[in-house]
Amino acid sequence: MSGRGKLIAVIGDEDTCTGFLLGGVGELNKNRKPNLLVVEKETSIAEIEETFKSFLARSDIGIILINQFIAEMIRHAIDAHMESIPAVLEIPSKEHPYDASKDSILRRAKGMFSAEDFR
Amino acid sequence: MRVDQQLRLDEQLLLFMDQLEALEEKRHKLNSLIEEGWFSIAKARYSMGNKQVSSLQYASEMEPLVYIETSMLEDGTAEFKCERKENKTEELKSNTIEDIGAKETGLRRRINTIQKGVKEEDQETDPQGKTKAESGESTPEHRDPLKWFGILVPQNLKQAQSAFKEVITLSAEIASLQSAIIAIRKEMQGQMKEKQQKTEKTQPEMENE
């Protein structure tokens, strides 16, 4: 199974979104919904979660980039996502540097080792 | 069989560790590139003005210039590859430049040799030439998000753009690595459970002896 021409979605603060748009990931036209969400102080958690779930439901998105501090707000939704595509990548923000211990993927990988495994 | 299984587990564990190390390295690089991008955007904002580099400048219509090619492997791992549309825009630019050049030399020759009647004709073809050039050029210019911020943008904004382009390519590699790590983890968990079940079966046999 393969897919060509999938998009990169971004859920981040203004500078993160500006940067990725400069990189050329943005899609916005009258017919389709945008593939990014600029999160500001006024943005509600419900809106972030709804946007995240809508990105997951779309078949044309390959990777979702999300600032880690925003991912913390909707951690339950991110942990519930088990499929390989779209991939969810947590990225740092200006005020919140990347913390590997909070990353969903690394927590899942870390959780495999327990004392019983080494008997 | 058991020794083979253990050897295989050991190999998988080593591969898992290698992949984790590679992931950490790429993450580190991604984080520093993103920070570089933010600094460049901040410097550009300082020179251009606060409101000149913000979400107010986003175009009302955007077309993506980078796509992700996804493929699923047999072991359940997903691979992500980054594809850019830059080559096509460069080809368009070179075609339009050639066309303009040819038309201009043709026009120049005609104007040099003649009179008003023909000059009028040249003027008619001229705007047509220009409109064709504009429509040819406008697609690559329209596509470059750098143009949303003005015609002459500071070098810092271009540096930010190149930093984020690299970040996008790295993101695809990290996504592939993450998928591989999760797949290996699942396989190892399955094999460890099998191993545990076997040791539990053999333990009562040993006790009976």
Automatic annotation (TrEMBL), chain A:
Protein's GO biological process: apical protein localization; Kupffer's vesicle development; notochord cell vacuolation; regulation of cell population proliferation; regulation of cilium assembly; regulation of heart looping; retina development in camera-type eye
Keywords annotated in UniProt: Hydrogen ion transport, Ion transport, Transport
Heme found in the keyword field: no
Entries under Pfam families matching the protein: ATP-synt_F
GO MF terms held by the record: proton-transporting ATPase activity, rotational mechanism
GO cellular component, one term: plasma membrane
Keyword flag Ion transport: yes
InterPro entries, sorted: ATPase_V1-cplx_f_g_su, ATPase_V1-cplx_fsu_euk, ATPase_V1_fsu_sf
Quaternary structure, from the entry: V-ATPase is a heteromultimeric enzyme made up of two complexes: the ATP-hydrolytic V1 complex and the proton translocation V0 complex.
Task performed by this protein: Subunit of the V1 complex of vacuolar(H+)-ATPase (V-ATPase), a multisubunit enzyme composed of a peripheral complex (V1) that hydrolyzes ATP and a membrane integral complex (V0) that translocates protons. V-ATPase is responsible for acidifying and maintaining the pH of intracellular compartments and in some cell types, is targeted to the plasma membrane, where it is responsible for acidifying the extracellular environment.
Protein family membership: Belongs to the V-ATPase F subunit family.
Record protein name field: V-type proton ATPase subunit F
Native source organism of the sequence: Carassius auratus (Goldfish)
Lineage: Eukaryota, Metazoa, Chordata, Craniata, Vertebrata
Gene: LOC113048109
Automatic annotation (TrEMBL), chain B:
Pfam family name, one: Vma22_CCDC115
Identification of the protein by name: Vacuolar ATPase assembly protein VMA22
Gene3D superfamilies assigned: 1.10.287.3240
Gene Ontology biological process: vacuolar proton-transporting V-type ATPase complex assembly
Region span, Disordered: 114-145, 189-209
Ranges annotated as biased composition (Basic and acidic residues): 127-145
Principal location listed in the UniProt entry: cytoplasm
Keyword Cell membrane belongs to the record: no
Localisation: Cytoplasmic vesicle, COPI-coated vesicle; Endoplasmic reticulum-Golgi intermediate compartment; Endosome; Lysosome
Keyword Transcription attached: no
Keywords carried by this UniProt record: Coiled coil, Cytoplasmic vesicle, Endoplasmic reticulum, Endosome, Lysosome
GO molecular function, one term: unfolded protein binding
InterPro entries found in the cross-reference section: Vma22/CCDC115 (IPR040357)
PANTHER family from the UniProt entry: COILED-COIL DOMAIN-CONTAINING PROTEIN 115
